[in-house]
Amino acid sequence: MERNDADIGHGQEGSDQDVLEPLDEEEGAYALTRKTVAAILFAVDTDDREQLVELMEPLHAADIADLLEQINAFDRRRLVRLYDKEFDGEILSELDESIREEVIMLLSPDVLSDAVREMDSDDVVDFVEYLEEPQQEAILDALEDSDRVAVQQALTYPEESAGRLMQREVVAVPDMWTVGQAIDFMRQREDLPEQFYHVILVDPRMKPIAHATLGKLMASPRETLLADITEPGFRTIPASQDEGDVAYAFNQYHLISAPVVDENDRLVGVITIDDAMIVLDEEHEEDILRLAGVGEGSLNDRVTETLKQRMPWLAVNLGTAIIASLVISLFEGTISQFVALAVLMPIVASMGGNAGTQSLTVAVRAIATKDLTGSNVWRVIRREALVGLANGTAFAVVMGVIGLVWFGDGRLGLVIAAAMIINMVIAGLAGTMIPVVLEKLKVDPALASGTFVTTVTDVVGFFAFLGLAALVLL
Amino acid sequence: MERNDADIGHGQEGSDQDVLEPLDEEEGAYALTRKTVAAILFAVDTDDREQLVELMEPLHAADIADLLEQINAFDRRRLVRLYDKEFDGEILSELDESIREEVIMLLSPDVLSDAVREMDSDDVVDFVEYLEEPQQEAILDALEDSDRVAVQQALTYPEESAGRLMQREVVAVPDMWTVGQAIDFMRQREDLPEQFYHVILVDPRMKPIAHATLGKLMASPRETLLADITEPGFRTIPASQDEGDVAYAFNQYHLISAPVVDENDRLVGVITIDDAMIVLDEEHEEDILRLAGVGEGSLNDRVTETLKQRMPWLAVNLGTAIIASLVISLFEGTISQFVALAVLMPIVASMGGNAGTQSLTVAVRAIATKDLTGSNVWRVIRREALVGLANGTAFAVVMGVIGLVWFGDGRLGLVIAAAMIINMVIAGLAGTMIPVVLEKLKVDPALASGTFVTTVTDVVGFFAFLGLAALVLL
């Protein structure tokens, strides 16, 4: 999508531009305004193609994709059909998976193949990898031969690996060249990649040795050896490496681009920081949703999709809630004599559950960022137990007083205070140890820790409170 | 930290290199191995400076920072003192805030001022902005005059703004220049920035108009006008913009670098994607911790720090748990007649709480990524209520049967089934509407939604279950 560069981002010149006005008061920076969405939907309602194209023109492909995600399926169908030939590959790349297939079905075959041909080969890979077989083939058929081969080759690497993430176009030169040779080489080459930041130095076996930034090349005399201006901290990435580890390396070591090598250490592609940033964003999103017991939720999923994602977690939760109920049922006799216990028991469980969630979230994040390791795990566990003890003691005093005042029974105050301390210490221990153990067992701690930790705090909370009550009050 | 580029990242040549071995089986990719940490601590124990320096040499500054964060305060003090003159500015920049001040105090003034002088000015800003006044001044005094002025100027921008994030070194040329003129200009300039990817075209008033990548410059004949090879999607960033919005723009529009402008649209600096990536990472981290009711937790905080962060959230939770208890206490009479109610009531509350957390997490993320807007909020709310109704009905059937079988009372089964449906629908509604309303009120929905939503599901759950029971069973 080409546009008049000078105007974008300033948005002072005309009212059409206010979509991109960086400091839009109404809905925060950079979002589509509600006004624009309404105007676009009005153009769709009135079947006014010219007006639609004019309204969409200043929008970035990412914003158009957001727009398509936000409107309902009926409007989406009419919009895509009306927009038709203007629909380009960039919008397709930006679309959320949940509505991608739906939109592909709406496009005429000509528009679809034009759109796909415009895309970079690594975007095509990202785009087709999760499509159904027949759709994937239809799109591959639309590509030119060389692009199709490139995409098919990328698809031979495992899902979510560096091999799928990388672009295959690289700028590599022999490691004994000078700055002048490299510049001349680049100026002669016709097919330089769209985006590249480094010239990669390779040995005669095509093994990457180091790289130099274009900026350094610009700043150095022609006769300088490339080997003398390479960047420190150079590292290569195996094509089979998991994309999450790739994103971690970019973030940890502040990489801008890194060459990808095959099992023989030969250069096969390059990954740039913008790809790594997208992966980092996705991994975070996944962690947040998993911690909340939502598989891969998105607002655009159909109700049936959403049910499929959420129901298993609720079923697991039902199981653990029933376990907690079984603990309570052990003490039915005690409760029927002291109904105050039924009133107070959820407080002990709830405080433990919250404290446990706090500990586990810090632990899950520390594991993800590799800050919780064999070297400090015991110190962290001790520390969390200590925090639990301190918090437990503080809230035990508060609840002890409340128990005394509310029910006029000092023993009840003592029981709830003791149960509170026990449960908060257990919460700190379980909140740290459960994610660590799950990690050792190769289970994603973000996915499963929550259920285990709250089961522990519910069971311990009810058992400690009701058990102590049975001992002390009866 | 300079090192032999050729070896890093391959790690086949010698045993010293295995620290960086990308596919370390023991603790996952790229982490410090436990063996290395043990060897380093042994060198510290034996006061063997030579061995320590040798072991630390292959480590990236980010890894050394991680190491310092993972060991205990006693070892940290000995290690920093022994490492002494080798300690450089890059390690300081990488250190977590929680132990930064501690480490600064350990360094001798000479080592500290050498370290700070090595740092880029934007790293110094990031480093000093949260230090106490006297330490901040000590560090500013160590800088050369020009750097000090640059840092002090950056500190005049608001905290967490684009002005603090940007680097001040830019490469800008008049907008009517040719490729040849730009290349000659860069080759003559002595102080090109360490990292830059674009040449910025400015008008005579220093307003950025467009930018061209270094790659395109390399690929174009000398006489080409820069204006003809500029990148689409150019946008500038106001210096006062919040860094979270900056990161959003980089992620949404796949920016690599973007010029920063003052209130008169004049160029004052540039932000690059690696800075934006760090901010994106921090914002995500913050969201995850806030959703779990942990302020700004880190594993390295002292116990007292951690207590200060977590206690307020537990206190709020205690308040809401007491409200739920008050609801239960309304039905003490009913419970004393049917103790089964006390056994089953946590199940209704727990299922509602979990369903509500699922809805709210999806909503909070959608708000953060600007996917939940005025255009689709009602559709999303309706959808979540529908999901709640469907899930509620499914689990109502299960619990109805369990109630009947466990307690042999069909009416109890009916009561718990009805309460389950009511609470799950409310969970879907509250989980979506509460974050939306908080956002409208300019309260961070990640921070406060959880408490409100679980309060609603607890109160509604207990009230619906016990209230229906009172009506039906008595």
UniProtKB/TrEMBL annotation, chains A, B:
From the UniProt record, report the name of the gene that encodes this protein: mgtE
Cellular component terms, GO, for this chain's entry?
plasma membrane
Which part of the chain is the CBS domain?
229-286
- Keyword terms of this UniProt record: CBS domain, Cell membrane, Magnesium, Membrane, Metal-binding, Transmembrane, Transmembrane helix, Transport
Q: What is the lineage of its organism?
A: Bacteria, Pseudomonadati, Pseudomonadota, Alphaproteobacteria, Rhodobacterales
Q: Where in the cell is it found?
A: Cell membrane; Membrane
- Sequence ranges of Basic and acidic residues compositional bias: 1-10
Q: How does it sit in the membrane?
A: Multi-pass membrane protein
The organism named in the record is Pseudooceanicola sediminis
Q: Give the primary localization class.
A: membrane
What is the protein name stated in its UniProt record?
Magnesium transporter MgtE
Query: Is the keyword Amino-acid biosynthesis in the record?
Result: no
Q: Which InterPro entries match?
A: CBS_dom, CBS_dom_sf, Mg_transptr_MgtE_intracell_dom, MgtE_N_sf, MgtE_transporter, SLC41_membr_dom, SLC41_membr_dom_sf
- Pfam families linked: CBS, MgtE, MgtE_N
SUBUNIT field: Homodimer.
Q: What does this protein do?
A: Acts as a magnesium transporter.
- Family assignment from sequence similarity: Belongs to the SLC41A transporter family.
Q: Where are the transmembrane segments?
A: 311-331, 385-408, 414-438, 450-473
Task: Give the Gene Ontology MF terms in alphabetical order.
Answer: magnesium ion transmembrane transporter activity; metal ion binding
According to the record, the residues making up region (Disordered) are 1-21
